[in-house]
Specification:
GO terms for molecular function: hydrolase activity, hydrolyzing O-glycosyl compounds. With 806 residues, this protein is mostly beta strands. Helices cover 12% and strands 39% of the residues. Bound molecules: beta-D-galactopyranose.
Length: 806
């Protein structure tokens, strides 16, 4: 038995040793593969000799909660999503070549939820309570070189509940890297890039570099940095001729003139790259890359936000970090898909509610052109949930905030630092001191962006955070009726609606009549008992939490007020947890413009009609009702003066948006057939949309968002599964159980249908359709080849599609 174990070790460590490039001054290795995982506590697992051979082997990023079953047992409040939490252990064995002996070796974690402790070869490297911070540890002192194995153990403790107001996920849910540098190297997050002056002809670029010298003796170095344009061509350079490094950390600075800069903008998020090279005795000892986007911006109390001198509104959404069926386990493609869907709606901004996001998310925002509000905390010292970060505040807040700013300050997409969301201290005098302290922490590290906080108290005298005077931009959550008066209430103060809406919808579910608004809570239905027995909310934009508004109510106010810099709608996508106003078995939120599976709700097209230049005509609901029922038919449209609706070719009349309305409506006595809407401008047809009564469910349709994938073991295809009738109409109430089978170089990463009260697990090969649709997510392996997805269901014609992974 023992011998077997040893053999397995040897074999495993050979297989799993990272590949170190001998002559590279800096190597950054993916450290995600071949971790062993155990769900439960095991104190001895920190010891090198601990036998983990019967633990599961997996690849990070990993969220163990999403693999579990929804259950009432997991509820400490309804907020966290009803999935299991607990304690988990991860272990990884690896070898390090002798050539790394003279180097510094670090492990970098982008985020571990929550309360992690990391050991290397039995030595504790440290703990990190906050689940959203990135951190690294220096392993150099404890490593064994050559064929000897090293063991890293990580304990993750998410057992104390509740500690979040939304689904947090559990585990090493972001990427991990092993970084090897010379003893003389750029420090972690060691560059800071600013652009103090920008004209059409020239951008002054300033680069600070923090150099680490841990070799124990003074060193003389030369530093050269070059700016490369998007094609890789060198366009500017600067040199620090000779520098004597006496201390362990030295900060140097370099200035560049970048001629005729191409500016970073929403439409053209142009990125340069700065490559810094450090030489010691003519030998290259480190190379470090920093992205650069050249842009200027301003928040103005009277005229709102401008980018590169042009006034514009921030048209943003708030996002929590879960990726639906994938949980919180970071996947670049899943985040990119979310951003693509939002971009197509005309969205240009993201608020990372209410915590620092994964670094890849910010890279995507840089590349795709989003105005990001990077947020640090949902609570300060005063807790919002019994076991939350408030308990760690005193010891950790300075480090966590500093680390966020250091890590993120070179991202051109970040335009604001938010030090908190609806912080309890806004109502008491400790808010004065904490706000100042936090704003100071941020300003010491970055003066190029405003500090903001998302507030709810709009009576200035009562708002301690505002009264601290330390905020540059005020963020206001909700209370759209108050926006018009803000220039009087908060004179000379730049303002933005940091959170709006909290409007509630279930995709594809419609309650009649639709022409009154239902606010849940104060003054509206007291609680869920007044709701629907199947825990649905109506997808007409006419339900909201009492503190919020419908989408239309807020946007039509903000669009007319130049002093409002913009808005971040609560939320872009439904997220796990916070199923307001329903209790269990509802387990995910209703606030999204898109549902948890990423299917747009109808209100998506309201924003698209307002926020893009593309012609829009969106007609809803579906056309399958009881004969004689009165059905409210809505249309969102733009670039047209009017819309005419026809039922079975009979006109039901022309409607025009009146006043500042953003939709039109007809009340139609239902009769089966075809509904047709025609939008016209000056009498000319702009768009036509039709919708027909669906017959009996007949077949499955599969539509992949991407048919050609990368064979990197991470890439995803999101496949929409529709239940259609014989003619190809979506059957709007179909709820068939669909079974999936994947063959070839791919596997099933998750399934979903966007229904907020579905208790089916996400990591299985079946899903019931909800209102005609469900989703399956296919993940590639590292081998190229074909992937075949087959979907079957009793009584329906099956469907198959083929994807290529290369
Ligand atoms: C806000 C809060 C969000 C979310 C939202 C739901 O007040 O900032 O985190 O809870 O309410 O409506």
């Amino acid at each position: 038995m023992k011998t077997n174990f040893k053999h397995t070790w040897l074999l495993l460590s050979l297989l799993i040793s990272p590949v170190f490039a001998q002559n590279e001054p800096r190597t950054v290795l993916d450290f995600n593969k071949n971790w062993r995982f155990y769900l439960g506590d095991e104190a001895k697992a920190k010891d090198v000799l601990f036998n983990d051979s019967d633990w599961r082997t997996l690849t990070l990023p990993h969220d163990w909660s999403i693999e579990g079953q929804f259950s009432e047992r997991h509820l400490s409040t309804t907020q966290e999503g009803a999935l299991p939490t607990g304690i988990g252990w991860y272990r990884k064995s690896f070898t390090v070549p002798v050539s790394a002996k003279s180097k510094a070796v670090f492990v970098e974690f982008d985020g571990v939820y929550r309360n992690s402790e990391v050991w290397i070869n039995g030595h504790s490297l440290g703990t990190r309570p906050y689940g959203y911070s990135s951190f690294r540890y220096d392993l150099s002192k404890y490593l064994r070189f050559g064929t000897e194995k090293n063991v890293m153990s990580v304990r993750v403790d998410n057992s104390a509940q509740p500690n979040s107001r939304w689904y947090s996920g559990s585990g090493i849910y972001r990427n991990v890297r092993l970084v090897t540098t010379s003893q003389l190297a750029v420090d972690q997050w060691g560059t800071y890039m600013t652009t103090p002056t920008i004209t059409n002809q020239n951008a002054r670029v300033s680069l600070q570099t923090r150099i680490r010298n841990t070799g124990g003796k003074p060193q003389t170095v030369n530093i050269t940095s070059t700016i490369l344009d998007a094609t890789g061509k060198e366009v500017a350079s600067a040199t620090v001729p000779t520098l004597r490094l006496i201390d362990t950390l030295t900060i140097t600075s370099q200035q560049f003139d970048l001629k005729n800069p191409t500016l970073w903008s929403i439409e053209n998020p142009y990125l340069y790259k700065v490559v810094t090279r450090i030489y010691s005795q003519n030998q290259l000892v480190d190379t470090f890359e920093t992205p650069l986007g050249v842009r200027s911006f301003k928040f103005d109390p009277a005229t709102g936000f401008s980018l590169n001198g042009k006034p514009m509104k921030i048209l943003g959404v708030c996002l929590h970090h879960d990726l639906g069926a994938l949980g919180t386990a970071v996947n670049r493609r899943a985040m990119q898909r979310q951003l693509e869907l939002l971009k197509a709606m005309g969205c240009n901004g993201i608020r990372t509610a209410h915590n620092p996001p994964a670094p890849e998310f910010l890279d995507l925002c840089d590349q795709m052109g989003f105005i990001v509000m990077d947020e640090a905390f949902d609570m300060w010292k005063k807790k919002k949930s019994k076991q939350d970060y408030g308990l760690n505040w005193d010891v950790w807040h300075k480090t966590d905030l500093e680390d966020m700013v250091r890590r993120d300050r070179n991202h051109p997409s970040i335009f604001m630092w938010s030090i908190g969301n609806e912080i309890r201290e806004q109502f008491d005098s400790t808010g004065l001191t904490i706000t100042k302290e936090l704003a100071d922490i941020v300003k010491k590290l970055d003066t190029t962006r405003p500090v903001t906080s998302a507030l709810t108290e709009n009576i200035p005298e009562k708002n301690f955070i505002y009264r601290s005077g330390a905020l540059d931009v005020l963020g206001f959550n909700y209370k759209h009726e108050a926006y018009a008066d803000f220039p009087k209430t908060f004179p000379n103060q730049a303002i933005l609606a940091s959170e709006t809406g909290s409007s509630l919808q279930t995709r594809g579910h419609y309650d009649m009549p639709s022409d009154s608004v239902r606010m849940w809570g104060k003054g509206g239905p007291a609680n869920f008992k007044d709701g629907n027995p199947d825990w649905t909310a109506s997808a007409y934009d006419n339900e909201a939490a009492y503190w919020g508004s419908t989408h239309e109510q807020t946007w039509k106010v903000i669009k007319k007020l130049p002093h409002m810099a913009g808005l971040y709608v609560w939320t872009g996508f439904d997220y796990l947890g916070e199923p307001h106003p329903y209790p269990w078995p509802a387990r995910s939120s209703y606030f999204g413009i898109l549902d948890l599976a990423g299917f747009p709700k109808d209100v998506y097209y309201l924003y698209q009609s307002e926020w893009t230049n593309q012609p829009v005509l969106h007609l809803f609901p579906h056309w399958n009702w009881q004969k004689g029922a009165n059905v409210d038919v809505w249309a969102y449209y733009n670039q047209a003066d009017e819309v005419e609706l026809f039922l079975n070719d009979k006109s039901l009349g022309v409607r025009k948006k009146t006043g500042d309305d953003l939709h039109v409506m007809w009340r139609v006595p239902y009769e089966a057939g075809t509904l047709k809407a025609v939008s016209r401008k000056a009498g000319k047809v702009v768009l036509t949309r039709t919708m027909s009564t669906a017959g009996k469910p007949a077949k499955i349709q599969l539509i992949a968002d991407r048919n050609t994938l990368r064979a990197d073991g991470k890439d995803l295809s999101f496949v929409t599964v529709n239940v259609l009738d014989e003619q190809g109409n979506l059957v709007p109430d179909a709820n068939h159980l669909i079974t999936f089978n994947v063959k070839g170089e791919g596997s099933l990463a998750g399934v979903d249908n966007g229904y907020q009260a579905s208790l089916e697990p996400f990591k299985v090969s079946y899903r019931k359709a909800y209102n005609g649709k469900c989703l399956t997510i296919i993940q590639t392996t590292e081998k190229s080849g074909k992937i075949t997805l087959n979907a079957t269901s009793e009584g329906l014609q099956a469907a198959t599609i083929e994807l290529i992974s290369q």
